[in-house]
Amino acid sequence: MNNSLFKSVFNNKVLNKLIFNKVNFILSRLTQSNQKLYKWQEIIEDPYILASHGYFNEIKACLSNRIKHVRLNYIRLFERVIRGGNLEIFKYILEYFRIDRRLKIGLGDAMLKTLLITASRIGRLEIIQYLFERFANYKWDFVRAINDVPQSNDLDLLKMLVDKLEASDPNEFDDRFDDRSLREAFNNAAFAGNIEIFKWLLNYRPKDFQGSMVFGYAIAGNQLEFLRYLFENHKDHYENGSNYLLSAMECEDTFEIFELLMQHTEFHMNQSYYPAYFGNLKVLKYLHSKSLLKCTHYEMDKAAIFGYMDMLKWLDENFKAGCSTAAMDEAAQRNQLEAVKWLHENRTEGCTKEAMDGALKSGHLEMAKWLLKNRTEGHSFSITSDIALTGNRQVLEWFIENTNHKPLEKDPTILRKVVAKGHLEIVKYLHERNGEDNIFYFTSEIMNIAASQGHMHLIQWLHHNRTEGCTEDILALNENIYKEDYTTMVQWILENKSQVDIHSIRTEDYISHLIQLNQFELLEWWLNKLELSKDQLIETKRQLYSKYPLSFDSLDLLDQYINK
């Protein structure tokens, strides 16, 4: 795609509106799939998408805000870059993660090893050559790269890496690879179904084939022709056939593999539950035709639970084992309304209270309405509180309005439990019905509970809509403030709740915590609040530099404050 032309269209407001106003609708009609469709604004804010599709200028703009992306997953990002194949973006991301600085302090090895392995698996020769040229003196882990390269289906790349391995000093290898084992290379060749690479490996390292699991990997990769090749040429390597057979039963796409394995594997009657679990009616019919199918209620239960209607009806027509109450109970929980209706009309086993409980707690309102109208088993005594604890206000209100079950006022701990789970809509519901008698027990402890679980949205709502506030030890008694997701909440509480003193928590430990997370924007706020002396800053850096050497931004910020 011509990115320059593409971006010029986006920047033209008239063309943009004309062409892309209905793009989501058109794409959804064309694809008829569940694939996520992104708006342009979402794309330019997501470095992983930008990396995958080669948007160089956009990814630079996106990553310019280091604060927003301080916890970026470098393995995931590099994989997207390598899959995209844009060398310039790859070079930029290397610098973004300060690879030279990492190597200088001896902490860049894991990153470089990951890059070579990923590029080998995806088959990006240009990126691999750049790595070898840029880091010419680095001791590369060729063995792990060779083990992954068959997934790329690139025999020439495999040969090149093997040449590099043969030319290297064996003493430079990681101790885990002293034997230069390439078993995983055989496995990955099987998974990819590449007979040519497999034969080449067999000629190069025959001893490693003995420890491989090529049959299992070929089955996992749905490689029928590769399996035929193995049975014709390496049948003696076929072991644990029963486990392989179970893998082939998982979906109808592997039915031909299943048939092939049946020619070489002893089938056990107690394995028939497996295709029922995965909804593989084709395998069930095959086993039945061979008089190998022994059914219990389990098979029909699973068919109902997962909504396999064709299987459910077929089992009912061909076997007398029936089902159990678990069929309707769990089908209701999973919102399999068609299956529940069919069981109600065609079977006599019925259900238990678990059916209504499961539907309500899972938020399946239409299922709950149907059960209330058509079944008499009812629900459990604690169901109102149970619904509240799911956070589903719509279901809660419907249930209270349409049944005579006890109201939430009878549960003195419901507010605390709901707050602990972070369910704002239920807190609002209780607030609206609290009354002058404070029947749900709103106190200053409620905000403390929200803080203990990191529910900042609840804290802010309580702050604006209730008057109880919090206690002055809301942070001092909260050990969770040292979790990564709590730092912004801690800052908000200190800025908005005057009764909470910044020194109520261990400030030295908290600064250490922020540096560990490299949350340098929050660190700057804390440094301004605490007004530490130069000697204190120097001592802080001395203690933490060796402990968190990769927190470059935070350590650089400390230097700035030291040098002020």
Automatic annotation (TrEMBL):
InterPro entries: Ankyrin_rpt (IPR002110), Ankyrin_rpt-contain_sf (IPR036770), SecEffector_AnkRepeat (IPR052050). It comes from the Eukaryota. Pfam families: Ank_4 (PF13637). PANTHER family: ANKYRIN REPEAT-CONTAINING PROTEIN (PTHR46586). This is Ankyrin repeat protein. The lineage of its organism: Eukaryota, Amoebozoa, Evosea, Eumycetozoa, Dictyostelia.
